[in-house]
Amino acid sequence: MANRSIDFFEEQFQSQVRAREFSLNPFEEAALPHLSGRVLDLACGLGNLSLAAARRGCEVVAVDASPTAIEYLSTTAREEMLNLTAVQADIERYEPPGAFDTVVAIGILMFFPRETALALLDRGKRAVRPGGRAVVTVLIQGTTFMEMFEGNRYYLFTPEGLEHAFAGWTILLSRRGEFPAPNGQVKRFSTIIAQKPA
Predict the structure, then answer these.
(1) Residue 155: CB atoms within 10 Å
(2) What does the pLDDT look like over 90-137, one tens digit per residue?
(3) What are phi and psi of 115, to 5 degrees?
(4) Domain count, the chain
(5) What is the residue-averaged pLDDT of the chain?
(6) Model pTM?
(7) What is the domain range of residue 78?
(8) CATH code at 8?
(9) How many helical (H) and strand (E) elements, i.e. helices and strands, does the chain have?
(10) Strands 100-106 and 128-139
């Protein structure tokens, strides 16, 4: 992810840790019932979803570029003796270690140019074992809130982009939505939860 984007979220995570704001966002709440077994959470942020999954008995690998996020997540996992490994890494260069029952990529793929975003999506899909699930949320065309992006290093998916990417998988959930952003701007999202053919 570009430095400006990392800095944007690093400041946000520091603020959330100080304020003790650790509740699941709507995307994480929708994802949680679908997480099972060995879970890879790419760009996990503060790891609220990763922690919730680990508390439910999942074996979790949580990856993020933010030092604040990974330090908080590592400390919490250690204190609660959870089966959770927190990894500080650049998602663009991160290679998933083996196959997973669930791969999560909520709010990360749009931070890369188109070719990179689609390559990362394919890498995540390959990391899902047969019969496993992928959970993906991206910003889509029509989004006007762009402050978190670094120059042209972003890709707004088409509204149907995720459905096309998961052709041949069983779609368990497909949802689009719009959320208000500062100064009258909007964020438009697409979320998909899909099961890989066994």
Answers:
(1) 21
(2) 999 999 999 999 999 999 999 999 999 999 999 999 999 999 999 999
(3) -60, -40
(4) 1
(5) 90
(6) 0.88
(7) 3-195
(8) 3.40.50.150
(9) 6, 7
(10) parallel
